[in-house]
């Protein structure tokens, strides 16, 4: 299947409430000069990058939740990322996993103050035609650095004074040391204990202390765990957002235009599920 056909198919996927924009290409993204300010480790291989817009007039006032920016490195390599904080005017914050090659490998070598980096205005990854903060319950199913778009939703929904939406994050990682933004997650959990529940799923036990944070140590997320932790299949007021590495997303919900996986097995309707791909 050619890329053009795939793009057309993605654009064509419109169903009740959700509309995927597809990846239309770079030309629609105006790129603006930014300066690299600092890099702070979040885990052993994920860093928090802070960039500032060189021209404040170009800086977005706020960043819509679950939006993406296109980043172009000094060598011209490009990749989409999801800003992790939405309210720091003039700055863009990204969580980037260092794979030691391509965009992340190049960014890992940058010194603070480095120029020649460009970032687009945030554009919504997914156009939604329903308010996202009004559901009864939202399950966020994430793995690794796939937490980035889910965290944006979680933070803004919990902060919303009028929202009563309950959130359950089911978050898969290799071990405790791989949990991205754990401190932020713990703080949100403490502050919004009546609305936020977090279930960690850790594949490998590195330390006995991991049993204190979850009963699922030594597990990959699977449909048995999801069936224990989820209810609300068929209820249009219950939604599920999924983001992570492709094999993980496929296991949970199929992929993009093919809906399948554990959620389908558990009888969640396609219209309940929003997959980031
Ligand atoms: C909308 C969107 C926004 C994104 N934003 C960013 C961003 O801002 N920054 C960034 O760096 N990347 C981003 N990405 C990329 C993407 O999130 C990561 O490339 C992807 O999640 C891989 O993450 P990882 O390498 O940490 O996962 P891995 O370390 O490969 O996997 C994490 C965990 O997933 C579980 N897992 C993996 N495969 C399976 C399986 N088959 N069954 C069950 N469990 C499994 C395991 O527990 C594993 O420990 C984004 C992607 C999308 C679609």
Automatic annotation (TrEMBL):
Gene3D superfamilies assigned: Nucleotide-binding domain of ferredoxin-NADP reductase (FNR) module (3.40.50.80), Translation factors (2.40.30.10)
Names of the cofactor(s): FAD
Oxidoreductase FAD/NAD(P)-binding domain mapped to chain residues: 140-253
Binding residues for FAD: 79, 97, 103-104
Protein origin, superkingdom: Eukaryota
PANTHER family (UniProt xref): NADH-CYTOCHROME B5 REDUCTASE (PTHR19370)
Name the UniProt record assigns to this protein: Unnamed protein product
Lineage of origin: Eukaryota, Fungi, Dikarya, Ascomycota, Saccharomycotina
């Amino acid at each position: 299947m050619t890329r053009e056909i795939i793009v057309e198919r993605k654009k064509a996927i419109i169903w009740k409430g959700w509309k995927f924009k597809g990846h239309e290409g770079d030309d629609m993204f105006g790129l603006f000069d930014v300066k690299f300010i600092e890099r702070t480790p979040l885990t052993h291989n994920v860093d928090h990058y802070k960039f500032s817009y060189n021209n404040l007039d170009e800086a977005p006032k706020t960043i819509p939740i679950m939006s993406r920016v296109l980043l172009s490195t000094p060598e011209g390599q490009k990749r989409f990322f999801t800003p992790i904080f939405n309210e720091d005017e003039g700055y863009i914050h990204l969580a980037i996993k260092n794979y030691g090659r391509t965009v992340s490998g190049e960014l890992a070598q940058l010194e603070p103050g480095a120029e020649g980096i460009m970032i687009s205005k945030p554009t919504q990854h997914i156009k939604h035609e329903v308010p996202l903060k009004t559901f009864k319950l939202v399950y966020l199913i994430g793995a690794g650095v796939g937490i980035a778009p889910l965290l944006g939703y979680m933070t803004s929904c919990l902060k919303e004074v009028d929202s009563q939406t309950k959130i359950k994050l089911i978050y898969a990682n290799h071990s405790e040391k791989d949990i991205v933004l754990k401190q932020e997650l713990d703080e949100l959990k403490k502050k919004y204990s009546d609305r936020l529940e977090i279930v960690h799923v850790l594949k490998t036990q590195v330390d006995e202390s991991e049993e204190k944070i979850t009963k699922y140590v030594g597990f990959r997320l699977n449909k048995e765990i999801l069936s224990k932790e989820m209810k609300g299949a068929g209820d249009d007021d219950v939604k599920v957002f999924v983001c992570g590495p492709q094999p993980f997303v496929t296991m949970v919900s199929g992929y993009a235009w093919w809906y399948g996986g554990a959620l389908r097995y558990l009888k969640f309707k396609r219209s309940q599920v929003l997959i980031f791909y």
